[in-house]
């Protein structure tokens, strides 16, 4: 093979490929002590510096003497060394955020803790990309979402040495067979400390046990580091004498273990691993100095959403230094992250305030002009504005510049450029929000998420008519998974295991999974009802046949799609209520195997109501009954329906039904009547004196007094019935309301004319002015003009919820709340947000959007048009991340409820506010 030009520059005259290979063999033998340096061909004057005991410092010398073949071969046999510290005075240092930093490299320890979501432990950000994470002691070789994780204890930082350490222990009692997702922990208790110690441009990972592990667990507990697969497909790895290519799919062979799980054979084993040596941006070296040899394992062999895993067992019988690795990422010298131009991927109304946000590496001192250009028909660009923007300041780890281009109002297509970095094209026009923005959610996403329906889309079938065997009453006193549990009673006339009729109709799959949660169903109904009432979108592009359980996309049927979707959700909620006399908590798959199915939900169950008299006998059990051989006809694979005593969910559901009763009047009078009857029953039945917050409370009411959740219900009942008793209840809660204007103001504003109390209005407006000051202060903390308080999940849903509430606050209180917060929130969702990936969070909306997302079709690396993801997550403490990866639920998952309808309200509201302007 002829070396490429980059290799030629490294080759000295007369240096031939054959000689390179022979030289590498001599280097290997010299490393093992089998040849002297002179015989190996190295200048004796450079010994021992030329061949140190840990010769990563030898690599620069090898690079000067060899072409790319030699480099790759030598990397295979050259271990890594902290001797880089001698040559790298600018190595890793502890920064003010308490992680290790140098140009091109950040190393965190326990800054995050969400191991099931691949965030936590030792994390490595290399050349602007998080390439590795979850460096920690694990009991499983390739752990998945429901495997044991440790308890995080005290984290310590030593400013003198730069060492970071964290105390950890097993088991986590809060998760052991209990909690949102119960995990079965073995009978093993131990504690340990993970330490990260800088070593020049490398760092050491050291594990110290409090005491040696029990004999039965020797050679079973190891340290794992997970490598992000999306960066490595098709790249090479070198491990001692084993090398290969990171496969795009998980390839065998493997074996079945005693517990019935699959264990894939390691890709390679050894003491020295080099990951992607040919890559300028993703090369990483690991050397095992203490503990077992390294295993490179494809974690996708057991779980589709797994990562590549580097694992080594802790040294048997050891306590101190039970494991030590030397990790040497290859940072680009003087690395600076590329500038990022952040604008809406859709565009702007001519009259709205427009900002282009320029994100710069904090060490980038360049200040270039930002240019706004209009696209001409011949493809050329017409410069309409060019200026060096003012520096906004520091946000997260970046320096931010911000250009106000509000003066650009002429309709057309535009781009924004900063140096050689150019945005995608976006539109400036009065009708920018009228088409291709909110419609995909209504004409694609909501129909595709419909349960109990076959969904046809021209030649395509999105999924079959699923879950027609819904549902069996859940067993009592059971912790299930995904937050479902059943208390000591079924709370209805049905006994555990009995079929509950009326549930095999309506509803939407909750998210990337297929359950029907009461809060997601009723929040969706409520949001759609608000959208219809406020904006009256008569859009019709779908046929929905509830009799035959078929939906046809792109086939109008003469009925507004939004009303049909409201009706579809109510068929499930009202149907369940009529059968059981109460709202369901949710309807969930019977087994974990069904819950984790990727693909068409018609394959989750057989569609037949379970009959124990004719069922096949399984060898596994669910709740003490035979469980299905997956896909077997007649098996007990029906979903379970759960009930609960949760007044917050009751009031939330009743609120949605009260609103739906208004909008369905004249469209489906029978359903409207049922909705109002049920809402009033719950008003009369459920008091507001329960302690708050109740277990499992929906996100919309966390931390609020229960009386305020009932105020929300009272507001919708007042708007529907005009019954004075609801206004009187609202007035009786004046003190609680004015103490929480952020929660109550947006929905109460719509009812103030019916409440008819000038003093109450005055008190509420005073409280809302205080809330406006809070919003102003929080929005000023970000260059995006919105409050930004990310948790583990991306901030998109939180910000679009803020924006949807601002729509109603502006409509009710235009003198207090300007329209700009509506528009700022929308711009954030559509692409003007932190990080290097500026995709719109709404699939298929805008020039660049999230077209790889966490929907039910995620295994195909694709998306559902109109599905809204939470988007860019914060890798703590300061790294915004939005990866192209289908298995990050905390970045890419779709959800029903406000995660869907808030975006509809936000876009419809922006369009109305800009074309019927009030305020600024």
TrEMBL record:
<keyword id="KW-0119">Carbohydrate metabolism</keyword>
<dbReference type="InterPro" id="IPR004197">
    <property type="entry name" value="Cellulase_Ig-like"/>
</dbReference>
<dbReference type="InterPro" id="IPR008928">
    <property type="entry name" value="6-hairpin_glycosidase_sf"/>
</dbReference>
<dbReference type="GO" id="GO:0008810">
    <property type="term" value="F:cellulase activity"/>
</dbReference>
<keyword id="KW-0326">Glycosidase</keyword>
<dbReference type="InterPro" id="IPR001701">
    <property type="entry name" value="Glyco_hydro_9"/>
</dbReference>
<keyword id="KW-0624">Polysaccharide degradation</keyword>
<feature type="domain" description="Cellulase Ig-like">
    <location>
        <begin position="338"/>
        <end position="422"/>
    </location>
</feature>
<dbReference type="InterPro" id="IPR013783">
    <property type="entry name" value="Ig-like_fold"/>
</dbReference>
<protein>
    <submittedName>
        <fullName>Endoglucanase D</fullName>
        <ecNumber>3.2.1.4</ecNumber>
    </submittedName>
</protein>
<dbReference type="Pfam" id="PF00759">
    <property type="entry name" value="Glyco_hydro_9"/>
</dbReference>
<feature type="domain" description="Glycoside hydrolase family 9">
    <location>
        <begin position="457"/>
        <end position="851"/>
    </location>
</feature>
<dbReference type="InterPro" id="IPR014756">
    <property type="entry name" value="Ig_E-set"/>
</dbReference>
<dbReference type="InterPro" id="IPR012341">
    <property type="entry name" value="6hp_glycosidase-like_sf"/>
</dbReference>
<comment type="similarity">
    <text>Belongs to the glycosyl hydrolase 9 (cellulase E) family.</text>
</comment>
<dbReference type="GO" id="GO:0000272">
    <property type="term" value="P:polysaccharide catabolic process"/>
</dbReference>
<dbReference type="Pfam" id="PF02927">
    <property type="entry name" value="CelD_N"/>
</dbReference>
<keyword id="KW-0378">Hydrolase</keyword>
